[in-house]
Design brief:
Uridine Diphospho-n-acetylenolpyruvylglucosamine Reductase, domain 1; globular; Uridine Diphospho-n-acetylenolpyruvylglucosamine Reductase, domain 3; Uridine Diphospho-n-acetylenolpyruvylglucosamine Reductase, domain 2; 27% strand; 9 helices; alpha+beta; five-stranded antiparallel β-sheet; single chain
């Protein structure tokens, strides 16, 4: 890895690189092993340089946003982890808001509010980044990113720059072309509408209160763990299986919201994986329903 880091610095001298960096610092669960090389680009050009380098040199590359709906296994990640959190510019053109991949969706929704633009209120409590939101077509309270997404600038795994229109992203429930083709999001544009600031603020306050009253925000977690199975609600199936409070190590099925697994202290990613497996097996046995994970699980076992 020393040689790879040296080559990267030759290609992009300003690139920030950390070796053997703990990924527990960058995930909402506060778990996860180390990255061989943790690379923090500040510009789209740096991102492209790293992606092209990894493609040409056959170096494993993993993209990391702000780690909100993610579990990194305890064995960590080999090769390069590309952390896009510093690509967080947000700006407006007419009724369009442009946001960098690393911008937090909550910040984008607040920016829209401050500009009296409506359409992103539903995102005021989604903790993910813009890139992650496009990857999984994030949504909450009846809204999805695809509802207001206009276009996006992405890179292919070979570092080729593409400009995608909304239709190109083929977004559906918790899925998009970004995930399917492993595109790397650089920037997204959201088409919004002019409105009055007060009703936007009121809607966001209402959704924030609903979120805070129902979700276990007092503990680290990876957010909603399971996708909604057809005809059911994952949280309800878990609750009716009497799994709330079930715990392995420091990972516990939340007593406040059954769809969340929280770190009540000292949890490892392995604890999380064991709890997820137990929940899936129990719900399958009780209701013959397969719970599919919504959370992204990456890395190697310890």
């Amino acid at each position: 890895m020393e040689n790879i880091a040296k080559k990267l610095n030759e290609i992009a001298p300003e690139l920030l690189i950390k070796k053997n960096e703990s990924l527990a610092k960058y995930t909402y669960t506060k778990t996860g092993g180390n990255a061989d090389l943790f690379v923090m680009p500040k510009t789209n050009e740096e991102v492209q340089s790293v992606v092209q380098f990894c493609s040409e040199e056959n170096v494993p590359l993993t993209i990391l946003g702000n780690g909100s709906n993610l579990i990194v296994k305890d064995g960590g990640i080999r090769g390069i982890v590309l952390y896009l959190d510093l690509l967080n510019t947000i700006y407006r053109k007419d009724t369009m808001i442009y946001a960098g991949s690393g911008a937090k969706l909550i910040d984008v929704s607040r920016f829209a509010r401050d500009e009296s633009l409506t359409g992103l209120e539903f995102a005021c409590g989604i903790p993910g980044s813009v890139g992650g939101a496009l990857y999984m077509n994030a949504g909450a309270y009846g809204g999805e990113i695809s509802d207001c997404l206009h276009k996006a600038t992405v890179l292919t795994t070979k570092g080729e720059l593409l400009h995608l229109e909304r239709a190109d992203l083929a977004a559906k429930y918790r899925h998009s072309t970004v995930a399917e083709k492993n595109y790397i999001v650089l920037e997204a544009a959201f088409q919004l509408e002019l409105s009055e600031k007060l009703p936007i603020e009121a809607k966001m306050a209402e959704l924030t209160e609903a979120r805070e009253s129902k979700q276990p925000l007092e503990y680290p977690s990876c957010g909603s763990v399971f996708k909604r199975p057809p005809g059911h609600f994952a949280g309800r199936l878990i609750q009716e299986s009497h799994l709330q409070g079930f715990q392995i190590g420091g990972a516990q099925v939340s007593e406040k919201h059954a769809g969340f697994i929280v770190n009540v202290g000292g949890a490892t990613a392995t604890d999380y994986m064991k709890v997820i497996k137990h929940v899936q097996e129990t719900v399958k046995r009780n209701f013959d329903v397969d719970l599919e994970t919504e959370v992204r699980i990456i890395g190697e076992d310890a």
